[in-house]
Amino acid sequence: MAVETLNTGAVRTAMDQEPICGGVAADRIAAALGTLNAMGEKAAVTSFVVRRLITRSLLVDLSGNPEGTLRHLGQIAEVRA
């Protein structure tokens, strides 16, 4: 079954945690790299980078909204490892 045909609501119901937004994912990846995204400073990892990871199939977008993306927390942990 193609990812595009999956029901977003069913996937969320099956998850043990709420999905996280691109900004939170970027902050967690930055922290894992040892370059924290500090408020008021230029971010080391941005949601743009997270979108590039989705484009390269390293993360899966769980949002039905093309303007915003949501990710599974477990996937972020895998990318950070």
Give a concise summary.
The protein has 81 residues and is mostly helical.
Summarize the structure in words:
The structure is a single chain. The chain has 81 residues and is mainly alpha-helical. Helices cover 43% and strands 5% of the residues. It has helices at residues 8-14, 22-32, 47-55, 73-80; strands at residues 20-21, 70-71. Strands 1-2 form a two-stranded antiparallel sheet. Helix 2 (22-32) packs across helix 3 (47-55) and helix 2 runs parallel beside helix 4. The longest helix is centred in the middle third of the chain and has 11 residues, at 22-32. The protein is elongated, with a radius of gyration of 13 Å. It starts with 7 loop residues before the first helix and ends with a helix. The mean pLDDT is 76.
Neighbour order of strands in the largest sheet: 1-2
The assigned structural class equals mainly alpha
| Largest sheet geometry | 2 strands, antiparallel
Helix content, binned percent: 40-55%
Which term fits the overall shape? elongated
Output the radius of gyration: 13 Å
Number of strands: 2
Mean pLDDT: 76
Strand fraction equals under 5%
**Series of secondary-structure elements, N-terminal to C-terminal:** HEHHEH
N- to C-terminal separation? 28 Å
Pick out the low-confidence regions: none
Helix count equals 4
